[in-house]
Amino acid sequence: MVPYNLLKTNGTAGYLNTGVWAAKAIKEAKMLGNIKILASSEDKKFSYVPKNYEIPKELDYFHITSNNTIYGTQMKQFPGSPVPLVCDMSSDIFSRKVNGKNFALIYAGAQKNMGPAGTTMIAVKEDILGKTGRTMLSMLDYKAHIKGESMYNTPPVFPIYVSMLTLRWLKKNGGVEWIEKVNEKKAQLLYEEIDRNSLFKGTTEKTDRSNMNVTFVMHKPEQEPEFDKLWKEADISGLRGHRDVGGYRASLYNALPIESVKVLVDVMREFEKRFA
Amino acid sequence: MVPYNLLKTNGTAGYLNTGVWAAKAIKEAKMLGNIKILASSEDKKFSYVPKNYEIPKELDYFHITSNNTIYGTQMKQFPGSPVPLVCDMSSDIFSRKVNGKNFALIYAGAQKNMGPAGTTMIAVKEDILGKTGRTMLSMLDYKAHIKGESMYNTPPVFPIYVSMLTLRWLKKNGGVEWIEKVNEKKAQLLYEEIDRNSLFKGTTEKTDRSNMNVTFVMHKPEQEPEFDKLWKEADISGLRGHRDVGGYRASLYNALPIESVKVLVDVMREFEKRFA
């Protein structure tokens, strides 16, 4: 929907290619106009977030992905942009403070930190809309949804209701400022163990490590079956990395308590004792 | 999505205009190609379903709406069509038996007879897809959703799960054959009272009366406030007609038991006793 609403017919948009989700966004956008990849970390298997690129002033917008679930990287700073900055925050929204003023459009699926799958949040500066020269199908037109007060179509009531409850829970506990500290502690605990433990290593640049998705591998991949046995015995689930990259990935979304991270760290220590 | 997937660039599609939902579908389809209205009941405020129209063989498809929630009409027979027949069954799917073979594509939002709002069912004959010559955005491409086994995007898990439970409930009780009889009884009970009662009258052609949405008005509209008081006292809710048409509308979807219809019929009788 982003290029459909923001990319002028014959216009050009800029994209930062930081992994699978960025690449999918780029593929779709290319069907609607000219797309310029301003920087990409594909050269090193998306193990870092590109920096020091220029954003041309003539772009219709510049699109970034704040957190990359599969490769375990996260943008710690957001670029100052001379054109509308568009951010896919699906996998780290409400996990940390961001300055909304820096963005012209933020979109995020509910299913990570907000609520159950089935709804998507859009925050958009209205003055960037309606400029494409494109005939707009109503369901794809952000303006139709704004005019309909998010009820242009019958809204997915249950996912929205549970998102409200989740955000109330967050607010009651101290809000985004509170959860940001919790998330930092959780990630720090696990990254410290990865760096300390002689059997494991991280897969990403340290400066770009995601607080949401911690990716790591074993120095000796032949030890994986034994490790898998041990963490499954400790009732940990979903630790295998995405099928496209292998290795391991611990997802530390808002809902995961620090106690769960401690269980994993203990398992890694125990494994080192037995197999190092 | 229907015209996007089925209407050839430079092709023509046929539509039957039976009310608000059909008109919305027509409006969107016109943005993608040539649309021919084969018949319309707008001349009599959509109080009937047009019959005896011709379906030209050169159309890409012919689109109908099986039930019209706002005007209270329903197609009792479906036209034999020389071109792919597409049906919006959102408001009466699983309320009665239909012969799937007659349709090339059926779509229906879950929120009437299937489950909570937030998911949509599509049944499509695959051989009608992929013929438009249009570059297809993946999210709008039925083929992408078929290839992804309905998980191209993160699916709305809760609405789908509850739809499954609802369909299991339906199956356990005797399936569509059973609920069709129940729905007929419910509708018959209410229409009989409307026809019998000296204070009320139906708004639609008798042959096209919907079993899902029963619309009626008062002979003397000035009596409405008194009637409203009485049905609200009986714990009936949502009986006011759609804001576009006024009057009254009783929605008798699968989930509504016949006992609720009896309560309304009793209220109408009582009202006649007091005010006729």
Topology:
2 copies of one chain form a homodimer.
Chain A lengths: L1 H5 L5 E6 L2 H10 L4 E7 L21 E4 L1 E2 L4 E2 L10 E4 L16 E5 L10 E5 L17 H6 L9 H16 L2 H22 L3 E3 L10 E6 L5 H10 L14 E4 L6 H18 L1
Parallel strand pairs in A: 1-2, 1-3, 3-6, 6-7
Antiparallel strand pairs in A: 4-5, 7-8, 9-10, 10-11
Helix pairs in contact in A: 4-5, 5-7, 6-7
Question: Could you describe the 3D structure shown?
Answer:
The structure is a homodimer of 276-residue chains. Chain A has 276 residues and is α/β, with parallel strands linked by helices. Chain A is built from seven helices and eleven strands. In chain A, strands 2-1-3-6-7-8 form a six-stranded mixed beta sheet, with helices on one face. A three-stranded antiparallel beta sheet of chain A has the order 9-10-11, with helices on one face. Chain A has a two-stranded antiparallel ribbon with strand order 4-5. In chain A, helix 2 links the parallel strand 1 and strand 2 (34-40). In chain A, helix 5 runs parallel beside helix 7 (258-275) and helix 6 (224-233) crosses helix 7. The longest helix of chain A has 22 residues, at 175-196. The mean pLDDT of chain A is 97. Chain A binds chain B through residues 4, 27-28, 31-32, 109, 111, 116-119, 135-139, 154-159, 162, and chain B through 4, 27-28, 31-32, 109, 111, 116-119, 135-139, 154-159, 162.
